[in-house]
Amino acid sequence: MEIVATRLAGVFVIGTTLRADHRGSFGRFFCEQELAPVLQGRCIVQINFSRTSMPGAIRGIHFQRPPHAEMKLVRCIRGRVRDVAVDLRAESSTFLQWHAEELSAESARMLVIPEGCAHGFQALEPDSELLYLHTAAYAPDAEGGVMFDDPALNLDWPLPVADISQRDLSHPLITHGFSGIVL
Predict the structure, then answer these.
(1) Most confident segment among 22-26, 99-103, 174-178
(2) What pTM did the predictor assign?
(3) What is the DSSP string of 114-145?
(4) DSSP H helical segments within the chain, as ranges?
(5) Among the options 22, 68, 99, 132, which is catalytic?
(6) What is the CATH number of domain 2-17+34-169?
(7) How far is it, in rounded angstroms, from Cα 90 to Cα 128?
(8) pLDDT, tens only, 76-128
(9) Is 132 a catalytic residue?
(10) Would you give the end-to-end CA distance of the chain in angstroms?
């Protein structure tokens, strides 16, 4: 596994080498030992799955507040998505900045999103599927989100928005008084 840092502290792109032959391919999805520099003692406690049917659909942008803040490791296992991490950490040098990666089964890359960063994605192909590895269990009372089209973030979505849930449409805009997530 190759660990590549992004300009956002704690946001990494993990590359996996796929070994292919006439039968197909094989690659490591997760290795606690190889990912130890990223996990830094955290444990994976929950694995989630999503399928997004329509290209252009957006899910997010979600986060969990402390004490239930979580690190997510996100991998596309079918289709293709534009995956986004948004830095909402108070006093971060990259506060309100974001990093986007195109993830696909073929690329075999994974995006690591640390505590205090929000996550969202846009499906670029039909029936795109993601697996999420989490370092904290889902806590509904700690859930938060920001709008996918918040002008304070100026996110770059490659396709016109085709679908978004009512829940995700109800996230607030970031205001001048938003000081970020204190971890």
Answers:
(1) 99-103
(2) 0.94
(3) -TTEEEEEEE-STTEEEEEEESS---GGGEEE
(4) 36-39, 166-169
(5) 132
(6) 2.60.120.10
(7) 33
(8) 999 999 999 999 999 999 999 999 999 999 999 999 999 999 999 999 999 99
(9) yes
(10) 28
- Give the residue extent of every domain in the chain: 2-17+34-169
Best-predicted range by mean pLDDT (20-24, 104-108, 114-118, 174-178): 114-118
User: Dihedral angle at the C-alpha atoms of 31, 11, 37, 108, nearest 10 degrees?
Assistant: 30
What residues have CB less than 8 Å from 36, skipping those under 6 apart?
Answer: none
How far out from the chain centre does Cα 132 lie?
Answer: 8
Q: Which of 62, 99, 119, 171 is flagged as catalytic?
A: 62
In terms of Cβ atoms closer than 10 Å to its own Cβ (0-12, 13-18, 19+), residue 1 is middle
Which residue(s) pair with 167 in the sheet?
A: none
Question: What is the token pair recorded at 1?
Answer: 């596994």
Rounded Cα gap, residues 152 and 44, in angstroms? 32
